[in-house]
Amino acid sequence: MKKIINTSKAPAPIGPYNQATLIKDTLYISGQIPIDPSTGELVEGDIKKETKQSMENLKAILEEAGMTFEHVVKSTIFIKDMHQFAQINEVYGTYFDTETAPARETVEVANLPKFVNVEISMIAVK
Protein backbone atom coordinates (compact mmCIF):
# COMPACT_ATOMS: atom_id res chain seq x y z
CA MET A 1 0.00 0.00 0.00
CA LYS A 2 1.37 3.41 -0.85
CA LYS A 3 1.25 6.47 1.36
CA ILE A 4 1.35 9.95 -0.14
CA ILE A 5 3.79 12.37 1.48
CA ASN A 6 3.21 16.12 1.18
CA THR A 7 4.43 19.03 3.29
CA SER A 8 3.85 22.77 3.18
CA LYS A 9 7.60 23.16 3.83
CA ALA A 10 8.26 22.21 0.18
CA PRO A 11 6.64 23.60 -2.96
CA ALA A 12 3.22 22.26 -3.87
CA PRO A 13 3.23 20.07 -6.99
CA ILE A 14 2.65 21.96 -10.24
CA GLY A 15 0.97 19.04 -11.96
CA PRO A 16 -0.83 15.74 -11.36
CA TYR A 17 1.69 14.25 -8.93
CA ASN A 18 2.65 14.37 -5.24
CA GLN A 19 5.86 15.43 -3.53
CA ALA A 20 6.63 11.83 -2.59
CA THR A 21 5.24 8.34 -2.32
CA LEU A 22 6.16 5.95 0.48
CA ILE A 23 5.89 2.24 -0.24
CA LYS A 24 6.82 0.11 2.77
CA ASP A 25 10.24 1.52 3.74
CA THR A 26 11.06 3.15 0.39
CA LEU A 27 10.39 6.82 -0.33
CA TYR A 28 10.25 8.03 -3.94
CA ILE A 29 10.63 11.82 -4.04
CA SER A 30 9.51 13.78 -7.08
CA GLY A 31 12.02 16.11 -8.71
CA GLN A 32 12.42 19.33 -6.77
CA ILE A 33 13.16 22.62 -8.46
CA PRO A 34 14.29 25.83 -6.74
CA ILE A 35 10.94 27.18 -5.64
CA ASP A 36 10.86 28.85 -2.23
CA PRO A 37 7.79 27.29 -0.56
CA SER A 38 7.25 30.33 1.66
CA THR A 39 6.76 32.65 -1.33
CA GLY A 40 6.00 30.30 -4.22
CA GLU A 41 8.66 32.16 -6.20
CA LEU A 42 11.61 30.71 -8.08
CA VAL A 43 15.09 31.23 -6.68
CA GLU A 44 17.02 32.44 -9.72
CA GLY A 45 20.29 33.98 -10.81
CA ASP A 46 22.83 31.89 -8.91
CA ILE A 47 23.17 28.14 -9.51
CA LYS A 48 24.46 27.55 -5.98
CA LYS A 49 21.40 29.23 -4.45
CA GLU A 50 19.14 27.34 -6.87
CA THR A 51 20.74 24.01 -5.91
CA LYS A 52 20.52 24.83 -2.20
CA GLN A 53 16.79 25.59 -2.50
CA SER A 54 16.17 22.33 -4.36
CA MET A 55 18.07 20.43 -1.65
CA GLU A 56 16.19 22.22 1.13
CA ASN A 57 12.91 21.23 -0.53
CA LEU A 58 14.10 17.61 -0.62
CA LYS A 59 15.16 17.85 3.03
CA ALA A 60 11.67 19.03 4.03
CA ILE A 61 10.05 16.09 2.24
CA LEU A 62 12.50 13.62 3.80
CA GLU A 63 11.73 15.06 7.23
CA GLU A 64 7.98 14.79 6.63
CA ALA A 65 8.54 11.08 5.97
CA GLY A 66 10.69 10.70 9.11
CA MET A 67 13.93 10.41 7.17
CA THR A 68 17.17 12.32 6.56
CA PHE A 69 19.74 12.50 3.77
CA GLU A 70 21.41 9.48 5.42
CA HIS A 71 18.44 7.42 4.17
CA VAL A 72 18.94 8.46 0.52
CA VAL A 73 20.17 5.58 -1.65
CA LYS A 74 19.79 7.13 -5.12
CA SER A 75 19.51 10.60 -6.57
CA THR A 76 19.19 12.04 -10.02
CA ILE A 77 20.27 15.54 -10.93
CA PHE A 78 18.96 17.14 -14.10
CA ILE A 79 20.84 20.26 -15.16
CA LYS A 80 20.42 22.67 -18.03
CA ASP A 81 24.15 23.36 -18.46
CA MET A 82 26.85 20.78 -17.67
CA HIS A 83 29.30 23.67 -17.25
CA GLN A 84 27.55 24.34 -13.92
CA PHE A 85 28.16 20.80 -12.66
CA ALA A 86 31.04 21.70 -10.33
CA GLN A 87 29.02 24.41 -8.57
CA ILE A 88 25.96 22.16 -8.25
CA ASN A 89 28.13 19.30 -6.97
CA GLU A 90 29.75 21.60 -4.39
CA VAL A 91 26.39 22.47 -2.83
CA TYR A 92 24.94 18.95 -3.21
CA GLY A 93 27.98 17.49 -1.47
CA THR A 94 27.40 19.51 1.70
CA TYR A 95 24.26 17.46 2.37
CA PHE A 96 26.02 14.07 2.39
CA ASP A 97 28.88 12.30 4.10
CA THR A 98 31.27 11.28 1.31
CA GLU A 99 31.66 7.78 2.77
CA THR A 100 27.91 7.06 2.71
CA ALA A 101 26.75 9.24 -0.20
CA PRO A 102 24.07 7.67 -2.42
CA ALA A 103 24.37 6.40 -5.96
CA ARG A 104 23.73 9.20 -8.44
CA GLU A 105 23.57 10.26 -12.04
CA THR A 106 23.68 13.75 -13.47
CA VAL A 107 22.05 14.43 -16.81
CA GLU A 108 22.14 17.55 -18.96
CA VAL A 109 18.73 18.31 -20.45
CA ALA A 110 17.37 20.86 -22.91
CA ASN A 111 14.69 22.24 -20.58
CA LEU A 112 13.18 21.70 -17.15
CA PRO A 113 9.86 22.74 -15.58
CA LYS A 114 9.53 26.53 -15.39
CA PHE A 115 12.81 26.61 -17.37
CA VAL A 116 14.89 26.28 -14.18
CA ASN A 117 18.56 25.32 -14.25
CA VAL A 118 18.43 22.34 -11.86
CA GLU A 119 16.00 19.64 -10.70
CA ILE A 120 16.85 16.87 -8.24
CA SER A 121 14.92 13.70 -7.37
CA MET A 122 15.72 11.04 -4.78
CA ILE A 123 14.92 7.59 -3.49
CA ALA A 124 15.36 6.93 0.24
CA VAL A 125 15.02 3.78 2.35
CA LYS A 126 14.47 3.48 6.11
A few lines on this structure:
By secondary structure, the protein is an alpha+beta fold. 21% of the residues lie in helices and 29% in strands. The relative contact order is 0.24.
Topology:
Elements: E1 2-5, E2 20-23, E3 26-32, H1 47-64, E4 72-79, H2 85-93, E5 103-108, E6 118-125
Parallel strand pairs: 4-5
Antiparallel strand pairs: 1-2, 2-3, 3-6, 4-6
Name the CATH homologous superfamily.
RutC-like
CATH architecture: 2-Layer Sandwich
The gyration radius over C-alpha positions equals 14 Å
Q: What is the H/E order?
A: EEEHEHEE
- CATH class, named Alpha Beta
Query: CATH topology, which one?
Result: 60s Ribosomal Protein L30, Chain: A
Number of domains: 1
Query: What is the count of DSSP helices, taking H or I runs of 4+ residues?
Result: 2
- Approximate shape: globular
Residue fraction in strands: 25-35%
Biggest sheet statistics: 6 strands, mixed
Helical content (DSSP H or I, runs of 4+): 10-25%
Count the E strands.
Answer: 6
Family: Belongs to the RutC family.
Pfam families: Ribonuc_L-PSP (PF01042)
InterPro entries: RidA (IPR006056), RutC-like_sf (IPR035959), YjgF/YER057c/UK114 (IPR006175)
GO molecular function: deaminase activity
